[in-house]
């Protein structure tokens, strides 16, 4: 029988690969053609309309959850996280990883010259966000996860996924204790001997192989647990195509000073996120900065702060947030073969 720690390792590793739903409200067939503001409004309407009572939040039993988690042992299952061009999960697909979270609207805003193109250049985008725990609340270490969906007029969204690492922060439930990143740090040498971690990395590789068995293909991430940022660099804030994209190697989100949730609470983490006072009054005209956006062009570079991600609405735990909203993972690498997304950090 796996230990709680082993189970948390498995969930954390695959969490960077797949976001998986039981049922989901249908988005209109014309949804992609809508304006960004209309998309944001539609997604938030679905979120608010299905919100849970914050005083009666529930989750399924650990036995049931673990049984469902066995479904991740399929490359084709994981590959959909990269290939599905939609903001909605397909009906019948269960959310195994990051199963519980809170959602709201946000703003992606770059204010500094970054040296990179597209979404990393000066400008802003309407967004939707989901703050979640990578695993079941009663299993293993607490692993804070952040997903951001940037929206465009008449174009598919570009999304960012991030957690800090494989091990999480133990029993500490302060959601804003640490940064989260698109490029995870290497596991400690001892952890590489862990059979569960090895199994999770194997599943990740199988998911990428289901996209393309050619590991040199620019149609898939080049290595496990580092998500390429080429797609975000290839589209301007207005949705137009960048002529010569230049992408960072990684994006890191650092909580702004003063934000926290209780470290020693045994209550549902979603309740505490909804109770953060600045979030409760957030609006498009009164955005609340949550994370500094930092980039690195190379694994050896120091992170550079280039902007902020803010919430522009209260955050809600809801059925749509947990069972409908989908964040496709960035997949493509720079076709030139000289992009920062091709810089390896490690091998397994």
Give a brief rundown of this model.
The protein is an alpha+beta fold and 348 residues long.
List the helices and strands and how they pair.
Elements: H1 4-15, H2 36-49, H3 62-69, H4 75-83, E1 100-110, E2 123-133, E3 144-152, E4 155-163, E5 180-181, H5 195-211, H6 230-233, E6 250-255, H7 269-274, H8 277-280, E7 288-296, E8 304-311, H9 319-323
Structural write-up:
- This protein is of the alpha+beta class.
- The protein has one domain (4-342).
- It has helices at 4-15, 36-49, 62-69, 75-83, 195-211, 230-233, 269-274, 277-280, 319-323, and strands spanning 100-110, 123-133, 144-152, 155-163, 180-181, 250-255, 288-296, 304-311.
- A hairpin with a 2-residue loop joins strand 3 (144-152) and strand 4.
- The chain is globular and about 50 Å long.
Please supply descriptive tags for the structure shown above:
19% strand; 348 residues; 23% helix; single chain; alpha+beta
Major beta sheet, strand line-up: 4-3-2-1-8-7-6-5
**Computed CA radius of gyration, to the nearest angstrom:** 19 Å
Residue-averaged pLDDT: 85
Q: Spans with pLDDT under 50 lasting ≥5 residues?
A: 4-25
Topology as H/E string? HHHHEEEEEHHEHHEEH
Number of strands: 8
